[in-house]
Amino acid sequence: MSDHMQIGEVAERTGLSLRTIRHYEQVGLVTPDTRSQGGFRLYTAADVDRLRLIRQMRVLGFDLDEMRDLIALLPPATAGSERAEEQRLTLLRDFSVLTDHRCADLRAKFDAACEFLATLRERRAALVTGATHEDTVEHVESHS
Predict the structure, then answer these.
(1) Whole-number Å distance between alpha carbons of 79 and 92
(2) Residues 116, 124: contact at Cβ < 8 Å?
(3) Burial class (CB within 10 angstroms; exposed 0-12, middle 13-18, buried 19+) of 140
(4) What is residue 34's predicted lDDT score, i.e. its pLDDT?
(5) Mean pLDDT lowest for which of 67-71, 74-78, 106-110, 125-129?
(6) Which of 56, 119, 136, 144 has the most crowded Cβ, counting Cβ within 10 A?
(7) Cα distances (Å, whole numbers) of residue 50 to 10, 18, 42, 75, 124
(8) Whose CA is closest to 92, among 76, 71, 62, 65?
(9) Percentage of the chain surpassing pLDDT 70?
(10) Could you write out the three-class secondary structure of the chain?
(11) Mind listing the pLDDT tens digit for each residue in 104-131?
(12) C-alpha to C-alpha distance for 128 and 122, rounded to whole angstroms
């Protein structure tokens, strides 16, 4: 087995569509290591890891520039100056803080969505039983 994968296998491993992977290639977020004699893109395990990271960032609402910035920080760096390493660590910390805030925001949205779903279920149940909204609220409050 070769160390390289075609785009279909990469899509399967990352959960991304072929179109999305090609888009990320066009915007420079990932570059296939090489191409086969037939011109097929060939990716490495490192490319798959990068695409998984991009997928995670996309879910949290990071834009393409933010993705590029973070990806530039993550490959194994050659020995650099102490100042460069400090800057790299600071940027990684900043991305961590931003990600933590976005996760908290998503948790709050998820909680609100669950509350809304409970409200819809409650209203649907009331309609099925013929109870009014006020009857349902009184019933819930009397059992609290």
Answers:
(1) 17
(2) no
(3) exposed
(4) 85
(5) 74-78
(6) 136
(7) 11, 15, 14, 9, 45
(8) 71
(9) 85
(10) CCCCEEHHHHHHHHCCCHHHHHHHHHCCCCCCCEECCCCCEEECHHHHHHHHHHHHHHHCCCCHHHHHHHHHHCCCCCCCCHHHHHHHHHHHHHHHHHHHHHHHHHHHHHHHHHHHHHHHHHHHHHHHHCCCHHHHHHHHHHCC
(11) 999 999 999 999 999 999 999 999 988 6
(12) 10
Q: How far is CA 89 from CA 47, 73, 85, 115, 116, in A?
A: 23, 9, 6, 39, 40
Q: Is the pLDDT of residue 82 over 90?
A: no
CB of 46 closer than 8 Å to CB of 16: no
